[in-house]
Amino acid sequence: MEYFYLPKGFLWGAATSANQVEGAWNEDGKGMSIADCEQYQPQIDVTDYQKVNDMTTQKILTAIKDQSSRKWGKRHGVDFYHYYEKDLELLAQTGIKAIRTSIAWSRIFPNGDDTNPNKQGLEFYDRLFRKMHEVGIQPIITLSHYEMPLNLIMNYDAWYDPKLIDYFYRFAKTVIDRYHNQVKYWIPINEIDSIIRHPYSSAGLVKDRFPNKNFQEVIYQAMHYQFVASAKITKYIHQNYSDLQVGGMITSTMVYPYNSDPRNALAATEIMRESYLFSDVQIRGKYPNALFNKIKNLGLNIKMTQDELKLLSQNTADFVAFSYYSSVCAAYDTSNLQVTKANRTTGVYNKYLPKNEWGWQIDPIGLRLTLINLYDRYQKPLFIVENGLGATDRLTSDGRVHDDYRIAYLKEHIREMLISLANDGIELIGYLMWGTTDMVSASTTQMSKRYGLIYVDLDDEGKGTNRRFIKDSFYWYQKLLHFGQKIPKNFLLEE
């Protein structure tokens, strides 16, 4: 029998975020976050990624006025805040060794600008991390994952305001000092490149709150301040906790030319470079010339000091973390072509690939190409911290979920990852599938777009029993991890 072999210490796991699962949005001193203002909008096409992520001040004011949680999915999540012990005990049965989640900033500093942390918030994460270690799971922690305190939008200019660097640093330092013995891997900002695509959830930026400013300039200035804050946190960790690792994280969507026309190849290259520009800053420590040129060509006046640029250059990340879900094609002329608005990277549909009901095209080989491209570019360890399939799961009358489609997705992507490990000379820390239990979708705020290994009985309006049901994919992942460091190749062959 032939086998795939894993490196020693390889981390199999799962991933989620605080705002998508925790709930308890107004309990134990937690402040309101930007996620608490997002709701599922059934009147909008769920495949229109930009429209479902649009935010206005009026929508925020409406959310503040409505203190219920039923319509606001991320306020109730799946009540992980109260179910975490049972959920972790279930997830540990798969054999996973890591779970990536986030620490909600507004649970620790309710307003973001508070002088002292919320004791009850810290005590929740004390209990959470203690339980994780008790069941043999290590936490991988993201410090900012689409859940900044709402006060920093309403009374500041969100990440456009340089004060946020210090506020975020205070939050990060507080939790790093407290949890450095429990958490080895830290990611300062989730998908730092996403600020360009959805500035509200990434950085709290709402266009109508900057009426007399070039909003593109606002976005790029906020981007710079996030880079500075991330480097400042990286410096603090490296100076004080040499055993910890810090990752720079980007969204990775594979982009192919629509055909062999060189103009389409150029279009694909230009889109791919966009995400690399962000990892270049965090991994190489400087703005690439292409990013400086883009800022100049757009006529943007971005404030950067020599001290800030020096901070970036001297405090680079230890590993490259990335999310990968799908791919698209690029064409210099998209007339008469089917363009997808669903993916985080807009592009043309690929006729060789299937797509899910949200319009994301499934491309396992794209994951292998991503591993090759990122490792060849940076020569630093990689970490797949998100990879999974959103789908409409059906609970049967006997309490089962037969998600063969998710098993097929995982099987094909994991096979390409293992082929890459065997042949491409990459270094890989681990693989974290997205997600743990079901959760509220980050992009559409739906419950019905399900990802996890465990089904949660809630609908898009927050109605249901909250009961947990194990999916078939849970048992498949459990069997995969049971093989340990030596995985039979035939287990990952298509059936």
Structure description:
This protein is an alpha/beta fold. The chain has 17 helices and 14 strands. The strands form four sheets. It has an eight-stranded parallel β-barrel, surrounded by five helices. Strand 8 and strand 9 form a beta hairpin. Helix 5 (80-92) packs parallel to helix 7 (119-134) and helix 11 packs across helix 14 (306-314). It starts with a strand and ends in a 7-residue tail after the last strand.
Q: Could you report the average pLDDT, rounded to the nearest whole number? A: 95
- What are the low-pLDDT stretches, counting only 5+ consecutive residues below 50? none
Category from helices, strands and their pairing: alpha/beta
- Strand % is 15-25%
Please state the overall shape, judged from the principal axes of the Cα atoms.
Answer: globular
Question: What is the compact description of this entry?
Answer:
The chain is of the alpha/beta class. It is 39% helix and 15% strand. Helix 5 (80-92) runs parallel beside helix 7, helix 11 (215-240) crosses helix 14 and helix 15 (364-378) packs parallel to helix 16 (404-423).
Q: Could you name the key traits of this structure?
A:
alpha/beta, 495 residues, 8-stranded parallel beta barrel, single chain, two-stranded antiparallel sheet
Helices, strands, pairings?
Elements: E1 3-5, E2 11-15, H1 18-21, H2 49-52, H3 57-65, H4 73-76, H5 80-92, E3 98-102, H6 105-108, H7 119-134, E4 138-144, H8 151-154, H9 163-179, E5 185-189, H10 199-203, H11 215-240, E6 245-257, H12 262-284, H13 289-297, H14 306-314, E7 319-330, E8 339-340, E9 347-348, H15 364-378, E10 382-386, H16 404-423, E11 428-434, E12 454-456, E13 468-470, H17 472-482, E14 486-488
Parallel strand pairs: 2-3, 2-11, 3-4, 4-5, 5-6, 6-7, 7-10, 10-11
Antiparallel strand pairs: 1-14, 8-9, 12-13
Helix pairs in contact: 5-7, 9-11, 11-14, 15-16
